[in-house]
Batch of 2 targets.
Target 1
Amino acid sequence: MFFRFAAIMATLLLMASRAIAAPANAPEFTQTSPQAWINSPPVTLESLRGNVVLVDFWTFACWNCYRSFPWLNGLEAAFEDADFQIIGVHSPEFDYERERGAVIEKVKKFELKHPIMIDNDFAYWKAMNNRYWPAFYLIDGKGRVRHTYIGETHEGDKQAKRIEADIKALLAEANN
């Protein structure tokens, strides 16, 4: 029974982690209040134009999310000299995850340094048609969503290698 469940989950992850056939413009970040942002003032997609952006949807009670943070922090360090930016989007699953102070505490605990938007009303979640924690969206330098990935990600695993290769490809594309 377990192996059948694991095979189904692996298939779903592969289906959901894909390149976008017809890239669409990413929606603008929906939260503009400084109180809705951690680690930076409010960010706009326009201010990130020319950068490759990885949007990470997470919530702090999700163990799949926080188990992906070491990889995410390593990814940020690996591309620190590139035109690359991670933007976290905290969309709470439970009511207690809506408190800004609690989110800040988790950001410190997991040593997240990138800008994080608090999406308590799920406005950006809905704008991106997201359905999962964690979910990662790769946006090219022109502001188009080019790749989506779902699920826990660890350094060196198949999905991490795919994401890192896609980032490098989009960075090379932006430089040409």
Note: The radius of gyration is 16 Å.
Target 2
Amino acid sequence: MLDVITIGSSTVDFFLETEFPLRPWDSSLGSAMIIPLGEKFSAIKSLITTGGNAVNTAVTFKRQGLRVATAIKLGGDIAGQMIYNRLQEEGIKDKFVVWDGDAMTSRSAVLLEHGERSIITYQGSGAALTISDLDLKKIRAKWWYVSLSGDSYKLFPIIAKKSREMGVKLALNPTMKHLRDGKKQLLANLKYTDFLVLNEGEAAELTGVPFSERLEIFKAIDKLVPGIVAITRGSKGSVVSDGSHVFKTGIFKEKKMEDRTGAGDAYGAGFIAGLIRAKAERGECGCDTDKLEYAIRLATANSASVVEHIGASEGALYKRDFDGSSRYKTLKIVKDRIK
């Protein structure tokens, strides 16, 4: 049996590192790039590579020594072939890849500025998964890792209920569109979720509680999710709840911030890889806290490595890199009981 099948989006990402002037702006980072119309500009660096939640996470799982496949939809174009080739290069099983010869594969233009980025996305085939594309009875694994882009979020109730019926553990990273447009169905089906990963903004959107009231957010989500909840906080680290305790940690300071694209995928996939590896290597007798802290450490390390590279999965850690590096051996994790 496979360890993980990732279900969701796949894209080709075009990265351009720029030096556009910045201006104050009402946005998450408080600034905006100024790009005058009608002029040409030179990029400092350029890279064309693969992206999308399902591909990014599959790369991490494979590099961590797990048996992984991905369920994605590709268009019949060069971009689709490029994604397929990446799966072959990484050794990711492709038996659940669906081809639509009439569709254009999803793609994104990513403008980088000092490690931060703005992304323009054409949804394409990656956001057009339908239930007929997923033969869920045949997609058997210990875990499904799900992140559905575009209108494919509408598949979540079917996927969630089927995971419980088949005895598959379900990991979910909802998109902001899923949280806003499909919030009602999401809330109704989180009871099937074994692992939920969100960033601060997504957690606030889901609960209606500002992230400054962190414990209230976890109390709200823990009532909905029977499994583990992880909330990433960018450079501030992450907070994880198992329903009884909250685990707070910082980050492994990056050597150089190159690109934040894929950091969330790296954390989520690293966490599940950590849980699977801890169970395999330490057995069922290992205490839950030990396994959770191992998963947090691997997730944090993987995210740090990814942001040190341009591209959403280029820096994903290999098993040997995590196990053999003194850099990732220790991470301060503070454990508090939820009152």
Note: Residues 263-282 form the longest helix (20 residues).
